Amino acid sequence: MSESSLVKHYMTKEVITVTPDTPNEEVIKLMKTTGHDGFPVKTNGEVLGMVTAFDLLLKPWDNLVKDIMSTDIVVADQDMSINDAARVMFRMGISRLPVINKEEKLVGIITNTDIVRSHIERSTPMKVNYFKKTLEQLYGVKTKLSRRKVPTARLRPTQNKIYADELQGRTYELKRGLAEPTITVKSGDRYILVDGHHRTVAASHLGYKKIDSYVIELEKDIKLGLEKTADKEGIYSLDDIEIIDDAQHPLIAITGSIRKSIK
Fold it and tell me: The domain that contains 13 carries what CATH number?
């Protein structure tokens, strides 16, 4: 198990909490403003329970959190593997785990969304390594791989169109810190965007100056075939990418057909 597969690397550290004496009306307001459907109940850093939308909906109404909160809860250690946390959540039928440290203080929360994000991020390196080896074989060069923030304005796109529905999804992910890094090749002083056009355009629209990327750096300046194709199509900046809103991204379209088959 790699170190990067631990709960502490994927959990949300800025946890919104309530206390046992928080009025339940405030909890409802908090759910409306944050979009979260549950919060850890904490006193002096220690987790005493959880209050969720189910508690508010299914239990007799009471004014305070302490009267309806669930106290029989499962917590995760921050050094627990992400796979073990996923198994616990699946077996218990729960969507989140408060995370504690060795002093049993609340240090974060891990949700099913974080589990999905960890899966995506762990699968991306396989794609990166595959592309890295392909470049080395195709151009007969050595490469160096790093992960860092790359200025969005310096990225040279190689794709002439993206889909509006996928762009909306990537915008949602970026706002919540869920998007996986892009894949970029650095040749000479150029940053060529290979994978992650929707993410990069979404980041640009959100005003992000930099984006998290896997950067494959070539040992010498080579003009890639991707660049030559981009030259022919007149793609030099993110502004040259067309956003298609009258067709669905292939992934979204497949999801739609599955839904139809269920009905």
Answer: 3.10.580.10
Tell me the per-residue pLDDT of 198-220, one tens digit each, with 9 for 90 and over. Answer: 999 999 999 999 999 999 999 99
Q: Does residue 129 sit within a domain?
A: no
| 160-172 pLDDT tens trace | 999 998 898 889 8
Domain of 49, in residue numbers: 5-113
Q: Report the C-alpha gap between 94 and 88 in whole angstroms.
A: 8
Q: Are residues 13 and 108 in the same domain?
A: yes
Burial class (CB in 10 A: 0-12, 13-18, 19+), 103: exposed
Q: Select from 98, 113, 128 the last residue of a domain.
A: 113
pLDDT(263) > 50: no
252: confidence class by pLDDT, cuts 50, 70, 90: low
Domain identity same for 91 and 160? no
Residue 248 confidence class, pLDDT cut points 50, 70, 90: low
Looking at the fold, whether 66 and 149 belong to one and the same domain comes out as no
